[in-house]
Write a structure and sequence with these properties.
The chain has one domain (about 40-235): Vaccinia Virus protein VP39 (Rossmann fold, 3-Layer(aba) Sandwich), CATH 3.40.50. It is an alpha/beta fold. The relative contact order is 0.13. It has a seven-stranded mixed beta sheet with strand order 3-2-1-4-5-7-6. It has five helices and seven strands. The structure holds S-adenosylmethionine. S-adenosylmethionine (SAM) binds near residues 88, 104, 131, 153 and 155.
Length: about 240
C-alpha cells in the first residue's frame, strides 16, 4: 500500500497520540497507587484495629441478611474454593459453611498481627497482597468470588476485574457489591458512577446476570452513597 505524505503524517500523529495516552494513563495509575499506599491503607488499618463492631454477633447477623438478600444459601459452596476479595479483618465469607476460603487482603498480615478479633486464620489461605497483583495459582481454580465494599478502596479497578476473570472456573460466579459515590476521600479514592462500573465490567468480558440497588434489609449502603450489586458470570 502506498501512502501520500499527508496520510503518512496523519497515521504517525495518531500512533503518537495513542502512545501519549498510554503514558498518561500509566502515570495516573502510579499516582493512584502511591496515594493508596500512603493514605488509604494506613487509614484502613486503623479503622479495622478500632472497629469493635466486627467482634460482635451483629457482624455475622448483618452478613447473613446481606448474603441471603443477594440470593445465596449457606451450604452452596461446600468443599469448593471461594475468594473473599478485600476480606478485611473478619471473614464475611464464613457465611458459606465448609467452603475453602481464600482471602485476598493487602493488610492481611497486619490484621493477623494487630487486630485481636481477626479470624483470618480460619481461611484456607490468605494472600497478603492487593487484588491488582495476579496470583497464578488461582487461575481457573475458583468457584465463587465475593467482593463486598472494596471496589471504591482500590487503585486499579480494571486490573482487578481482569484478574477475577482469570480466577473463575467456567461455571463460576462473581458477586461484586460496592458503594457508588462521585466524591472521593483518602480512604475511598475511587469515584464510580453506576454506568462507569457497568462499562468497566463489560470491558473486562464479564456478563451481568442480575443487579440490585441498595442492600435490602441492611439499608442503602455500606457507609456512603448507594450500594450497587452485580452478579457476574464469564459468559
Ligand atoms: C471497608 S473494608 C471491607 C472489608 C470486608 N470486605 C467487609 O465487608 O467487611 C475494605 C477492605 O478492602 C481492602 N482493600 C483496599 N484496597 C484493596 C485492594 N487493592 N485489593 C484488595 N483489597 C483491598 C482494605 O484493606 C479493607 O480491608
Amino acid at each position: 500500500m502506498v501512502f501520500s505524505k499527508p496520510d503518512f503524517i496523519c497515521r504517525y500523529c495518531l500512533v503518537f497520540v495513542y502512545k501519549v495516552t498510554d503514558v498518561v494513563e500509566l502515570f495516573m495509575k502510579n499516582i493512584a497507587k502511591t496515594a493508596w499506599k500512603k493514605e488509604a491503607q494506613p487509614g484502613e488499618l486503623i479503622f479495622h484495629q478500632t472497629n469493635e463492631w466486627r467482634n460482635t454477633a451483629g457482624f455475622m447477623e448483618q452478613t447473613i441478611k446481606l448474603m441471603e438478600g443477594f440470593g445465596y444459601k449457606r451450604t452452596m459452596f461446600k468443599g469448593q474454593v471461594i475468594i473473599d476479595l478485600g476480606c478485611g479483618s473478619k471473614l464475611r465469607s464464613k457465611f458459606f459453611t465448609d467452603a475453602l476460603i481464600v482471602g485476598i487482603e493487602p493488610l492481611g498480615s497486619d490484621f493477623i498481627k494487630t487486630v485481636p478479633w481477626n479470624d483470618l486464620n480460619d481461611a484456607y489461605k490468605v494472600f497478603s497482597a492487593p487484588a491488582e497483583k495476579t496470583i497464578k495459582e488461582l487461575e481457573g481454580a475458583v468457584k465463587f468470588i465475593m467482593c463486598i465494599n472494596v471496589f471504591d478502596h482500590m487503585f486499579d479497578v480494571d486490573k482487578v476485574l481482569e484478574n477475577c476473570y482469570k480466577y473463575l472456573q467456567d461455571d463460576g460466579e462473581f458477586l461484586l457489591s460496592v458503594d457508588i459515590h462521585k466524591e472521593t476521600n483518602p480512604m475511598h479514592p475511587v469515584s464510580l458512577t453506576p454506568k462507569k462500573l457497568v462499562d468497566k465490567i463489560k470491558k473486562s468480558g464479564f456478563k451481568i446476570i442480575r443487579s440490585t440497588k441498595g442492600l435490602g434489609l441492611v439499608g442503602d449502603n455500606y457507609g456512603h452513597g448507594i450500594a450497587y450489586t452485580h452478579v457476574l458470570h464469564l459468559r
